[in-house]
Amino acid sequence: MNAVISEIGVEPVTIKAAGDDQDALLALLIRQSYADVARRFAITPQSAPAHPSACTADWIRSDRLEGVRYVVAACGDMLVGCAALKAATAETFYLMRLAVLPLFRRQGIGRRLAQHVCRQARRAGAAEMSVGLIAAQEELAAWYGRLGFEAVARRRFDHLPFEVLLMRRHLGSAKDRHQPLGSGKKSPCP
Description:
The protein is α+β, with helices and mostly antiparallel strands. The protein has one domain: Gcn5-related N-acetyltransferase (GNAT) (Aminopeptidase, 3-Layer(aba) Sandwich). 29% of the residues lie in helices and 32% in strands. It has helices at 23-40, 57-65, 109-123, 138-146, 174-177; strands at 3-6, 9-17, 69-75, 78-87, 92-100, 128-134, 150-156, 163-170. The longest helix has 18 residues, at 23-40.
């Protein structure tokens, strides 16, 4: 279990489903978490209106209507991170909007969020998880690599001012995916 050191001591970080009433908080968390990336790559709402640094509560509501599930990392009552999971097909799920507030990074929270949604996808029968990121963000690609993701393609999209690196992680065989976690079988999801 990860913990965060605060003014009142060490507090555990819990991962749980985001509440339906947390759309505005999720949008703020995502914007704040991606602000440094936007500055680094000169991304603005005008140059990349679909970048998470421009996230709004309406995006979150729209995502939910499309079946996107959000989870949050909470330290007490404070949200410090989130991630979203979307079924692209029955076999492929997308890891989206993985975000950790800058003050809470490098404490394993992002890893826990990614692992959590990986397990959710696996339980839902997915064979693979995909994620897209700014191709020039080599340190983030290396981080995803340590989580078992492999680069599969680089793409340019008309609505984005940067090249996107697409990465994929295999979640195991169909037989393994339907085994409950902790069933004695080694899970491909850490």
